[in-house]
Amino acid sequence: MTDYAKKTDVELVADVQGGDQAAYRFLVERYYRKIYNLALRLVRNSEDAEDVLQETFVSAYKALPNFKGQSAFGTWIYRIATNFGLMKLRGKKPVFVSLDEPRDNDMPNIELTDFSANPLEEVLDTELREKMEQAVSALPDDMRTVFLLRDVEGMSNAEVAEILDLSVPAVKSRLHRTRLQLREQLSRYFMERGGRSSQKAMNP
Amino acid sequence: MNCKEVLGKMSEFLDAELMDTVCDQLREHLEKCEHCRIEVNTVRRTIEIFQQMECKSVPGHVHEKLFKTLRFDTIGDPEENK
């Protein structure tokens, strides 16, 4: 019996291309959870995320015979999913604002709270997690896409550039502006949270 | 390196994508500029926080539908389901 679980993506792809259909199941099992999470945060509703998940793995299966392995299977499947996700978004909202050019209001001169001192495990609670989801969800589509692939999924700038047909400098620039925007939201959140806890300390 | 340059380069700095000499200049600036230190530290923390975003589990019915569409229950050809 073949131990598919121990095989690399490259080996599983070769198995599928050689006619072994069962190998595809293991590729799907390896990626479907990640793809679902990406889709959910990209399209922001579970119904569309479900569609993206289905479309991704059905169309990947159809395209797999022609997959040449120039990019990693992971990059390739993320690319397919991202494209389906963006298609869903564009279908809903015809104007796709590109934010590649820095705008004047990109870097508001706000007073920053230094929220970097507390240990990560102390601050990461349900309330913050909710805030994080809201902050990502509120990003413009192009910034959200880059950020999800790069910082949440942990892909490289080059991989994100390949997935989105952007140059590496364009990815870096979008990523930088997105990080600043999210940082400002976190800063405001931690300032408010600090205010709440000191108020609680005064009026327990 | 001045504050404006530091702010422009801090993402690349945090991603370890700057040349060593530029990195050294940036670090040198950070040592004497508290404002930029807070800028860099809070962006670093922002990245760390968002890297902890949860990978939610896929609802049972979604998983089931996907595997049914792909005919994984029978390990057949997904195309047959079309």
Q: In angstroms, what separates the terminal alpha carbons of chain B?
A: 61 Å
Helical stretch count of chain A?
9
Strand count, sense and closure of the main sheet of chain B? none
Computed over alpha carbons, the radius of gyration of chain B is 24 Å
Question: Major beta sheet of chain A, specifics?
Answer: none
Provide structural commentary:
- The complex is a heterodimer of chains A (204) and B (82).
- Chain A has 204 residues and is mainly alpha-helical.
- Chain A folds into 2 domains: 4-92, RNA polymerase sigma factor, region 2, helix turn helix motif (Rna Polymerase Sigma Factor, Chain: A); 104-202, Arc Repressor Mutant, subunit A, CATH 1.10.10.10.
- Chain A contains 9 helices and no strands.
- Chain A has helices at residues 9-17, 22-43, 46-63, 73-92, 120-123, 126-137, 141-152, 157-164, 168-202.
- In chain A, helix 3 (46-63) packs across helix 4, helix 4 (73-92) packs across helix 8 and helix 7 packs across helix 9 (168-202).
- Chain A is elongated and about 70 Å long.
- Chain A starts with 8 loop residues before the first helix and ends with a helix.
- Chain B has 82 residues and is mostly helical.
- Chain B has one domain: Orthogonal Bundle (Arc Repressor Mutant, subunit A), CATH 1.10.10.
- Helix content of chain B is 65%, strand content 0%.
- Chain B contains 4 helices and no strands.
- Chain B has helices at residues 3-14, 20-32, 34-51, 60-69.
- Chain B is elongated, with a radius of gyration of 24 Å.
- Residues 75-82 of chain B have low confidence and may be disordered.
- Chain A binds chain B through residues 21-22, 24-25, 28, 32-34, 36-37, 40-41, 46, 50, 53-54, 57-58, 61-62, 107, 112-116, 120, 123-124, 128-129, 132-133, 136, 147, 151-152, 154, 157, 172, 175-176, 179-180, 182-183, 186-187, and chain B through 7-8, 10-12, 15, 17, 38-39, 41-59, 62-63, 65-67, 69-70, 72, 75-79.
Give me the secondary-structure topology.
The complex is a heterodimer of chains A (204) and B (82).
Chain A: H1 9-17, H2 22-43, H3 46-63, H4 73-92, H5 120-123, H6 126-137, H7 141-152, H8 157-164, H9 168-202
Helix pairs in contact in A: 1-2, 2-3, 2-4, 3-4, 4-8, 6-9, 7-9, 8-9
Chain B: H1 3-14, H2 20-32, H3 34-51, H4 60-69
Helix pairs in contact in B: 1-3, 2-3
